[in-house]
Design a protein that fits this description.
TerB-like, single chain
């Protein structure tokens, strides 16, 4: 899997983990969103549901650990990821996918809104 997909899946996974709860509906939305990524960038790699689920399982603990860092350290980690994504991806579509994940459990938590606002500020 390419670094571009790793970055995109990292940001989408942050959307799942932002409220510190993992709901099946959010994972389902993540998987469906990620399998559509091949339509919004130039990569030849096509993500399957199985690949996305394996990636999520293999990376969620690492991403959770990053979320628990002090804000300055979290920003130092996530801002470069956002900048790389902005250079190569359809950021409007990715923002929409993040919003879809955030509403998948029927409630947009304040931490999910904060993440989306951070992303929008850095992609403005």
């Amino acid at each position: 899997m390419s670094n571009e997909f790793d970055d995109i899946l990292t940001i989408l996974t942050l959307s799942v983990l932002a409220d510190k709860k993992i709901y099946a509906s959010e994972i389902d939305t993540l998987v469906k969103a990620a399998t559509r990524i091949h339509l919004i960038n130039d990569s030849q790699t096509i993500l399957t549901e199985a690949k996305v689920l394996v990636w999520f399982e293999n990376n969620k603990d690492k991403i959770k650990a990053k979320m628990n860092l002090p804000r300055s350290e979290f920003d130092a980690w996530v801002i470069p990821v956002l900048k790389r994504i902005k250079q190569n991806s359809d950021i409007d579509t990715l923002t929409h996918l993040m919003e879809m994940i955030a509403v998948a459990d029927g409630e947009v938590h304040v931490s999910e809104r904060a993440l989306i606002n951070l992303v929008k500020r850095n992609w403005a």
